[in-house]
């Protein structure tokens, strides 16, 4: 497995290109903006882009869905509860930033515990609502792509429509902190971390009981 990180757009969203080198197949997680840079990086990896996977439906995570899908034919995957955000600028909040993001609709609707096969890599879907209703974490080997659920020393906002602080903390504690300390975390914004570091140091996690 090969991983390339691009930080894209005004909100500095982490966009991840995940490659199964043997199969020469790639998936992009959260192509939020800057389609040209993403497509260039994908070409440099010499892998065919099969999937666009959105950890949730906010504009800063789906902004380049349309251009990347058009250029590559990759299929768009998102959790059922966030799928309506894809082509609705009010729901994906892009209209409140003054531009309208409209993604093509989902090609595949994801549910908790689904797996997405990328060559020999198995990408597991973990439903982690709280930032949005349909937020997911993607697990590949010992790596978690946590979207806007869990950040290094932080957690996602819960004051946006569909957000819930209680649900977010519950998702983190019952769906993410169950993994071993060495499990890597690649979040939707900011630096990477590990489950162990967040368990010890994340100020939002220790104090709240669920
Ligand atoms: Zn978000
Ligand atoms: Zn975000």
Based on the model shown, name its key terms:
14 strands; Metallo-beta-lactamase, Chain A; 210 residues; 20% helix; 6-stranded mixed β-sheet; binds zinc ion; alpha/beta
How would you describe the overall organization of this protein?
By secondary structure, the protein is α/β, with parallel strands linked by helices. The chain has one domain (2-201): Metallo-beta-lactamase, Chain A. The protein contains five helices and 14 strands. The chain has helices at 35-44, 59-62, 65-72, 165-176, 195-201; strands spanning 2-8, 13-20, 25-29, 48-53, 75-79, 108-110, 115-118, 121-127, 136-140, 143-147, 150-151, 154-155, 184-187, 193-194. A six-stranded mixed beta sheet has the order 1-2-3-4-5-6, with helices on one face. A six-stranded mixed beta sheet has the order 7-8-9-10-13-14. A hairpin with a 2-residue loop joins strand 7 and strand 8 (121-127). The longest helix is centred in the last third of the chain and has 12 residues, at 165-176. The radius of gyration is 16 Å and the shape is globular. Residues 11, 13, 58, 60-61, 148, 188-189 line the site of one zinc ion.
Per CATH, the superfamily is Ribonuclease Z/Hydroxyacylglutathione hydrolase-like
Each distinct ligand: zinc ion
Q: What general outline do the C-alpha atoms trace?
A: globular
What is the domain tally? 1
* Count of strand segments: 14
The overall pLDDT, averaged over residues, is 96
Structural class, by secondary structure, is alpha/beta
Q: Which sequence of strands runs across the widest sheet? A: 1-2-3-4-5-6
Run of helices and strands = EEEHEHHEEEEEEEEHEEH
């Amino acid at each position: 497995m090969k991983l390339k990180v691009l930080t894209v757009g005004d909100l500095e969203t982490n966009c991840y290109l995940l490659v199964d080198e043997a199969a020469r197949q790639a998936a992009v997680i959260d192509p939020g903006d800057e389609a040209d840079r993403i497509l260039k990086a994908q070409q440099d990896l010499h892998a065919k882009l099969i999937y666009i996977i959105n950890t949730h439906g906010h504009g800063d995570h789906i902004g380049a869905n349309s251009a990347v899908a058009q250029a590559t034919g990759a299929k768009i995957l998102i959790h059922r509860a966030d799928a309506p955000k894809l082509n609705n600028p009010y729901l994906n909040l892009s209209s409140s930033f003054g531009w309208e993001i409209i993604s093509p609709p989902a090609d595949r609707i994801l549910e908790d515990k689904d797996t997405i096969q990328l060559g020999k890599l198995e990408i597991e879907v973990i439903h982690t609502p709280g930032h949005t209703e349909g937020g997911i974490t993607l697990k590949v080997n010992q790596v978690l792509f946590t979207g806007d659920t869990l950040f290094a020393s932080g957690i996602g906002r819960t004051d946006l429509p569909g957000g819930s602080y209680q649900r977010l903390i519950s998702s983190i504690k019952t769906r993410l902190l169950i993994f071993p300390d060495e499990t890597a975390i690649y979040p939707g914004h900011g630096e990477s971390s590990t489950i162990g570091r967040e368990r010890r140091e994340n100020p939002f996690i220790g104090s709240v009981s669920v």
